[in-house]
Hints:
alpha/beta
Amino acid sequence: MSTETDASPTPREPTLRGQTVVVIGGSAGIGLETARLARAEGAEVILTGRNPERLDSAARELGALSSAAFDATDEEQLDRFFDGLAEPFDHLMLSGSGPYYAPLAEMDFEQARQDVYRHLLLPVRVGLSAPSHMRSGGSLLFIGGTGGRRRGAGLTLIGAITAATPALVANLALELAPIRVNLIAPGFVDTQLSATLLGDQIEARREELRAKLPIGRVVGPADVAALAVHIMSNTALTGATYDVDGGQQMLPG
């Protein structure tokens, strides 16, 4: 004799319930998708971005706690943002900007300086300014990349930055403990930024990756967001770099 049992799964507690997540660069792409998933996991979100209209749209869509339009590379504006927060927050993600590729003979040194600031000095500045506004047990999460691990013409600057960022993050994790500090290193991610950088070559790049990547598809912002929220919620993770590239680094060439 058999009896019918209720096979309904036990509801899962949202992993970020009661917490607040700040996303710098949260109006599009990886930043917006991370904020969206953080909201789904119970967090309040605070968004920043440089484009006021796009930021306002994202904030309304997600029901953000607040938003602020400014350029995070402006140190005075960045400090003003932190000082203006009404309550402490738990996690911060600094969404990455696109890398600067240029052969040495064609390198624009002003753009190179800006790229070094965005990818190396801005995380240091965030590490200096953010912790005094964070709750105990919080985390900082930075976005890097894997493209600079290759060698070739045009990769001199991004190669150096890619090599330096994991060391920066590991040392920040020691200096800022018990605040956790981690780095996500994506490969190609199918975002509007990628489409802008590649122009009319974007569809060919998507098709190439669908055919060659071990996962059989292109990595999207939701893949990076899922990893980001996991790193925020897993309190054992600090000082590490996490790749999310669908196996792109294993491809020849």
